[in-house]
Amino acid sequence: MIKQNYTCTLLSDIVLNASLATDGNMETLNFIPGANFLGIVAAGIYQNHIDFAFDILHSDKVLFGNAYISNKENVSIPMPFSLFKAKTGTGPTYIHHAISGDKDNELRKKGIQLKQERAGFLLSDNTIIKNLKKNFSLKSKQDRNTRKSEDTKMFGMESIESGQMFSFSIEYATEQLKNIVEKYLIGNKFIGKSKSAQYGSVDIQPEIDITLKTFENNTYTLVYAVSNLCFLDEKFGYPTFKPEAKDLGIEGGEICWELSQIRSKTLSTWNFKRGTDNAQRHCIEAGSVFYIKGGKPRIITKPLGEYINEGYGKVIYNPWFLNANSDGTILNELTESKPDEFKNDNKPITTALGKFLKNKQEQRSIDLSRAIKIHELVYANGKDNLKAISSSQWGEIRAKATNISEIENLKAELFTDKTGFLCHGVSAEKYWDKNKNRETFKSDFDSLSKHGTAAIAKYAAEMAKESIKQKNKR
Length: 474
Hints:
This protein has 474 residues and is of the alpha+beta class. The chain folds into two domains: 2-342, no CATH class; 352-473, no CATH class. The chain contains eleven helices and 27 strands. It has helices at 34-48, 53-57, 102-109, 175-185, 352-378, 384-387, 391-403, 407-415, 425-432, 437-448, 453-473; strands at residues 2-10, 62-64, 68-70, 76-78, 83-86, 94-95, 114-116, 121-123, 127-129, 134-143, 148-160, 165-172, 187-190, 201-207, 220-225, 231-232, 239-240, 250-251, 254-255, 264-267, 270-271, 276-277, 281-284, 289-293, 296-297, 315-317, 335-336. The strands form nine sheets. Strands 1, 2, 3, 12, 13 and 14 form a six-stranded antiparallel beta sheet that branches. Strands 4-8-9-27 form a four-stranded mixed beta sheet, with no helix packed on it. It has a four-stranded antiparallel beta sheet with strand order 19-24-15-26, with no helix packed on it. A hairpin with a 4-residue loop joins β10 (134-143) and β11 (148-160). α1 packs across α4, α5 (352-378) packs parallel to α11 (453-473) and α7 (391-403) packs antiparallel against α11 (453-473). The longest helix is centred in the C-terminal third of the chain and has 27 residues, at 352-378. The radius of gyration is 32 Å and the shape is elongated. The N and C termini lie far apart (86 Å). It comes from Lacihabitans lacunae. This is CRISPR-associated protein Csx10.
């Protein structure tokens, strides 16, 4: 199989409902299922490559993976259920299979009660991210006849915030299938709900692979579920939550359920084309860990179980984060990361509205930086002598700064020896030649030069206000 990694950057918020319920507030998933990427290419495949439709969309020759939060340096996987931490949230991280029995009792005697880590994602650099950045908004159903909101039809909608980057992979049986899929996959696409409104815009691009580390152990094998696992019972063909070791790719082994950490769920996916939900799926959740005694992992070329073309069935054998110290703690301690570190705000803006808003944001940032600097200078220690200068003097300076656009021309107008506004005449003798006022103002002038003449005008306006305050105190 040919494996290709991709990044999916959110250009707008996206909505991926966690359930099919239509009442109450709708929660979104914290990852992008592989079926969404399959759906992106489906229309193009059916219309232009009908001969390849079965191979690409309905077989195991093209396997679409789930997308999890990432950045250019790190990919992530769902939080492993074998990781435990003290209920207080402090202290080291323990691994379930390494602290069973006496070690667990020893921790309880010390007053340490462990709690399973369930939420969030584990990153390839041994950090964890607890929550993605999400937004919540209230919506209302529209009456098509009156073109107004319908009464009693309000609902809440949660979305994954734009700017975040997700990583996923697709495996191809041939290079030809890869070329066909990428023709309809790469670029600006739409996924999730409300794609015709304000949600769902993403940018998909190919990316290099980041290898996840593993370790060796001759006594047992740990099978970590990167994605949901779905298995059918061989005897009756029914879904089962109790696979055998061979179903997990381990020949001759036996699952030790006491040392495993498994969670299960039942879900139904939505079929947009048919406008209804698919049959229920009974899954072992991503993040589950199987402890298998004996046996050796077989070399597998594809995921395990059912629905593998939609991202199900991905596993890792003996992943690095389940390697324990002798005291049961994780070999390399984890640290918490923040969602902001996984935002990518450097995508080019192409729309007129986007460019307008970007310019507004940049101008606002410039104005804020200038205002902070002016405030620091006006209210710094040692400025009482400047504040004692008459408000009319500051008014003249403000007028000149308003009418002169170039900072060097304004500097010459104010500070040129014998001809500058502050260097000759009665006002120079009365105000600027005393107490090094001219030198103090020139220092502030130079500090504000990079902000342009508008900053000098603002500075003079603030000084005029302070001058009036000083006069009123006398």
